[in-house]
Design goal:
single chain, 4 domains, alpha+beta, Molybdenum Cofactor Biosythetic Enzyme, Chain A, 7 helices, 28 strands, six-stranded mixed beta sheet, Molybdopterin biosynthesis moea protein, domain 2, Molybdopterin biosynthesis moeA protein, domain 3
Length: 419
């Protein structure tokens, strides 16, 4: 199938006069302009782990496909029970087991041995657990009180044949794969993987295998962003490092546009003398420098290069990581047909204190403690990469001024919520 048309070149343009953009405004703008840009593929369910459904998955059969026993025990017709305190029912010869159903009908007033998962024979509508009965001389003895339908699973009580089991846009995890197989679904239509390039810029960057002088740094952003994209189920494309040279930057953007649906860059996206990424984008594309009212991650450069969305992330690793999760993750999900995903936050008691000024959203590296509270990293510096490894999520403080005291409830979003 062909791919949907690409995004318009003006999709990142903010309203005139916008200076500092609140986080919610930026997210709302992205949400209204992002749509699926990839096509569809057919795959066996067994090979569809991590993929996004392109169409509703419809149950081929009911689950369970027939009424069955939920326990090991004995089945009978509930209406045949007497008003006495003790019940006495003769047992028929044979039994019902999973994969070996009883072929006949159980006579009214009699019972049959039945095992967990076995199809309920005709004439049976209730099952009593084997622990609650005694069997003597072919007779079943048990106390009165069992309810009609006890320990029986109805046909289709989970999902009926023909029902939508999973809606389009659902990401197929192990649980979803199990459900589809149980419903007899052998193949699904899924979205092609969104190909997302990752490009670093800067003469100061070195690779771990290289020697680095004091004025040089190792490129932490690119492997970090590639890892995020792989975790999120996209096809991550490593485009390497480009030096601070406009011709090299332009060539790298051309290469990315040939094989990628979207691009993440880090560094060179502000307005400094050596910010060649933003300079090239401003000269050859429609560049929009968003000044987000957020800490960390204030500068965010967005552009279209030959129909490919470019997300220019800040150079500081903490800021790059933060903006990738908050802005790039939901936008990329929408581009892949997953819809706009809002990560689930939890309100937990603060194990810290903080006085916050008004005017911007603050994102603090945080982790949960054993007592259910949440603590934050000792430093808010956006160059402290160790804080990302220390944390397992973010505490997000709203735009307004506030004072956080020990025990106050704060919004905590685990990193896993962005998957």
């Amino acid at each position: 199938m062909g791919n949907p048309p690409r995004l318009k070149d003006d999709c990142f343009a903010l309203p005139e006069g916008t200076v500092w953009t609140p986080v919610e405004t930026a997210l709302a703008h992205l949400r209204s302009h992002m749509r699926c840009v990839v096509g569809e593929e057919r795959h066996p369910v067994s090979e569809a782990l991590g993929r996004i459904l392109a169409a509703d998955a419809v149950a081929k059969r009911a689950n369970p496909p027939t009424a069955n026993a939920a326990v090991d025990g004995y089945g009978f017709a509930h209406a045949a029970l007497s008003q006495n305190n003790m019940q006495l029912l003769p047992l028929v010869d044979g039994r019902a087991a999973a994969g070996a159903p009883f072929a006949g009908k159980i006579p009214y007033g009699q019972a049959i041995r039945i095992l967990t998962g076995a199809s309920v024979p005709k004439g049976v509508d209730s099952v009593i657990m084997q622990e609650d009965v005694q069997v003597k001389d072919g007779q079943l003895h048990f106390e009165t009180g069992l309810k009609l339908g006890a320990n029986c699973r109805a046909k289709g009580e989970d999902v009926n044949a023909g029902e939508i089991a999973l809606a389009a846009g659902t990401r197929l995890g192990p649980q979803e794969i199990g459900l589809l197989v149980a419903l007899g679904v052998a193949e699904v239509s899924v979205r092609s993987r969104l190909k997302v390039g990752v490009l670093s810029t800067g003469d100061e960057l070195r690779q771990p295998s290289e020697a680095a002088s004091d004025h040089q740094i190792y490129d932490a952003n690119r492997p970090m962003l590639l890892g995020l994209l792989n975790d999120w189920g996209f096809e991550a494309v490593d485009l390497g490092v480009v030096p601070d040279d406009r011709a090299a930057v332009e060539a790298a953007l051309d290469q990315a546009a040939k094989g990628c649906d979207a691009l993440l860059t880090s560094g060179g996206a502000s307005a400094g003398d050596e910010d060649h990424m933003s300079a090239v984008l401003a000269e050859k594309a429609q560049l929009h420098l968003w000044r987000i009212a957020i800490k960390p991650g204030r500068p965010l450069a967005l552009a279209m290069w030959q129909g490919m969305p470019v997300f220019g992330l800040p150079g500081n690793p903490v800021a790059a990581f933060t903006t990738a999760l908050i802005f790039a993750r939901p936008a990329l999900g929408a581009l892949q047909g997953q819809g706009w995903q809002v990560p689930q936050a939890f309100h937990l008691p603060a194990a810290f204190e903080k006085q916050k000024k008004a005017g911007r959203r603050e994102i603090l590296r945080a982790r949960r403690k054993a007592d259910g509270s949440v603590e934050v990293f000792a430093s808010e510096g956006s160059g402290r990469i160790s804080g990302l490894a220390w944390a397992d999520g973010f505490v997000e403080l709203p735009d307004e001024a506030m004072q956080v005291k020990q025990g106050d409830l704060v919004a905590f979003t685990p990193f896993s919520a962005f998957h």
